[in-house]
Design brief:
Elements (H helix, E strand, L loop, with lengths): L2 H11 L3 H15 L5 H19 L8 H6 L1
Amino acid sequence: MSKATDDILNSAKRLSTAERAELAAALLASLDGEPEDDVEAAWTAEIQRRVERVRSGGAKGRPWTKVRER
């Protein structure tokens, strides 16, 4: 690691757990680059479709314990 990177890491380690988690998430997200509009639109539509299916009773949920077993 460069000195600058090491300095940043040491500073980050002094943050609270919540702040470190937020920083880590932001750093990981920055590796993905900018989201593509059509991909974001497709995910938004899919999430909305799934929400509507649950609200209308068309989808049955499963208890977490059963999902975890599977």
